[in-house]
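Handoff note, outgoing to incoming analyst
You'll be picking up this chain. Sequence as last confirmed:
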Amino acid sequence: MAHHHHHHEKNDQALKLHDPSHRHHQDKVPLIIVLALTIIFFFVELLGGLWTKSLALLSDAFHMLSDIAALGLAFFALWASGKPAHAKKTFGYYRAEVLVAFINGTALVVIALMIFHEAYQRMRVPVNVKSIPLLVIASAGLIVNLIGAYALSRGGKENINIRGAFIHVLGDALGSLGAIGAGVVIWLKRWMWFDPLVSFFIGGIIIYSAWRLLWDTIHILMQGVPGHIDLEEIKKSMAHVEGVKSICDLHVWTLTSHVEMLSAHVVVENVLQSMVILKKLQKNLQECYGIEHVTIQIEDDSLGTCNYFV
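Most recent structure output, in case you need it:
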């Protein structure tokens, strides 16, 4: 009986690992903390930027606004992808996460272009900046960013939106460093043009992080093969299973962070062995590549449906 109970406990743990709602609950806590901190500090930097007339600080505030969007959208996506599937949406709302990351990346590019435009204007006509308050606010901003980055660093490997938010917060920390640099230079040298120069740098960081995020989400939306998976290797590994003649129409794609799907046509020597072969293939794909959502069509040569795709 005890053994039986222990077995159940182990199964429960395994289920928790693969259960999206359990993972979502773990992901939500750091998101809430970082979101609250960032919202408070966005207003501090925005008002500080207007008061000190520092574009670097205002750029950093807008970068923080993009963090709020990233975190808010990541939060929304966690909520949406936790909703159950139904007859109209058989995959549930998993893809919300990817769509949200895409919208997020696009918004970032727009913000960066606005910063570039304003920085160009200020390079031509420099504005007087209050250096000491700029230094104090930017330093506090850096501390907030580092706390946020630390809180998010743990979930970022698994979830594209938390990774997106993490990249934002890190970029923001660089932005705060830039603003601190601007404060120091203006304080010591009175070079007012250094402030818009730093804004160009912050805009560059925003563009870079947005581009990475957009690239990843477009790849997923185009049903691209996940980066860590080698299609040829999977094909060979499947073809090595006893009784398999050939593999065709093989597709591997990502549904959402951490959920890979595979479908394939498998031509076998003896159709009577189908179930045995199917079990071996599924075990192989799960153990070697972590792919659990597998759809395999077993057939013999006479069907001839293997001419569509790869």
